[in-house]
Amino acid sequence: MDLAGQNPRTRTDGMDIVRGENGFSNCEKALTLEDFISVEQELSVKLPDDLKAHYIDHNGGTPERSVWVDPEGKWDDNEVRDFIPFRYSDRFGDDSDFTAEGRTKREWSEQQLPPHLIQFAFDWGGNYYCVDHRDGKVYFFVRDVWSDNLTIEKNWIVNTRYVTTSFKSFIDNLAAGGAGT
Fold it and tell me: Rounded to whole angstroms, how far apart are CA atoms 167 and 23?
């Protein structure tokens, strides 16, 4: 369930929250559509347009409004620590391990991430928020729990939680609160 049509200041449990315009700090070098063409070719995927539009304005960085509040209350509120930049990571000498496409490519090859998910942000525990490149939906992928008693595919299923219908919905519904505010 998305939050569209709900009072933007009230959670399903009645607690007030604040949503709206979201500023980002500590962003990396601005991206162009040509950058995204290169990323899409490198990963052999088509990235959602709403993700590209956001990243052209804010390449990675720390959001002012950083808390994802589950509108159905099935899981605890979770704070986004940072968005992962694409193409550029000045703080790390543009090392691909510190870019979304570099991490994605490596973790796909190591079977640490399902091949349809591309991470774009992480929480304070190092778990990922990901976009599904097939349909644009957003998922939370738990990285700090893995069972050797399950197949890789079953671990992926167990560790993946649906968040919302689109990247834009995810951004629009981040709330104020948490350590970063």
Answer: 16
